[in-house]
Design a protein that fits this description.
Elements: H1 2-14, H2 20-71, E1 75-82, E2 85-91, E3 104-107, E4 112-114, H3 123-129, E5 135-136, E6 142-146, E7 152-154, E8 157-158, E9 163-168, E10 177-182, E11 188-193, E12 200-201
Parallel strand pairs: 5-9
Antiparallel strand pairs: 1-2, 1-6, 2-3, 4-9, 6-7, 7-8, 9-10, 10-11, 11-12
């Protein structure tokens, strides 16, 4: 009987679980590991958001160009700022507006269209393209017009100008930047620049 009571008491002692000290240490380790992981997770999230925004600009430019070729007429890609966000779209009916029924995208999150101010020097892009200058379009509202062959036209005439849209977050330059380049022939390229780094072509 005494032997059985001692076994029962010992079993209860071993099955009490964690002490408060052990629990506090475990929670502290979890908090430290989480704090270490958050910056990396946020960097990955911001990179994804920038890549997604640049891809949406590029894809809608390509769609507008395809529509111009398919319909055998000039069609414009429009971009305008409404309040605190940007709207881009394909002006399929040629009324110089982004109508609700036309294909469009709205930038309301972390990534948005930016002016050239504060972005890294475009020397690597200029060197790769063999041109002397880029014309920034993302600083204000405007348009890019594609003709029936898919080339870019300005004022009705074929242009040799290379245009660029900057994508990023002005309040968080540490996240880096993306750029969508529109060539005179109508094709697009996507570039990226890490914080304090130089431009590298993504696609």
């Amino acid at each position: 009987m005494k032997w059985s009571a001692r076994i029962s008491s010992s079993t209860r002692s071993r099955s009490r679980g964690f002490s408060l000290v052990e629990l506090a240490v475990s929670l502290l380790i979890v908090v430290v590991l989480t704090a270490m992981a958050i910056p990396s997770l946020m960097n990955s999230l911001h990179a994804y958001q920038l890549n997604d925004a640049a891809a949406r600009v590029s894809d809608l430019l390509k769609f507008t160009r395809f529509e111009a070729v398919r319909k055998n007429t000039q069609i414009s890609f429009l971009f305008q700022q409404i309040g605190g966000y940007w709207v881009i779209g394909t002006d399929s009916n040629g009324n110089s507006l982004i109508d609700p029924t036309e294909r469009q995208n709205t930038f309301t999150g972390f990534a948005t269209l930016l002016p050239a101010t504060g972005t890294p020097a475009t020397t690597p892009i200029l060197t790769a393209l063999g041109v002397g200058a880029l014309t920034t379009l993302s600083g204000g509202p405007g348009s890019v017009t594609f003709d029936a062959r898919g080339a870019v036209r300005v004022g009705g005439a074929i242009t040799t100008t290379v245009f660029i849209f900057y994508v990023g977050n002005g309040a968080h330059p540490e996240a880096g930047y993306r750029a969508v380049v529109v060539l005179p022939a109508g094709s697009t390229q996507v570039w990226m620049a890490p914080p304090g780094g130089t431009w590298l072509r993504l696609s």
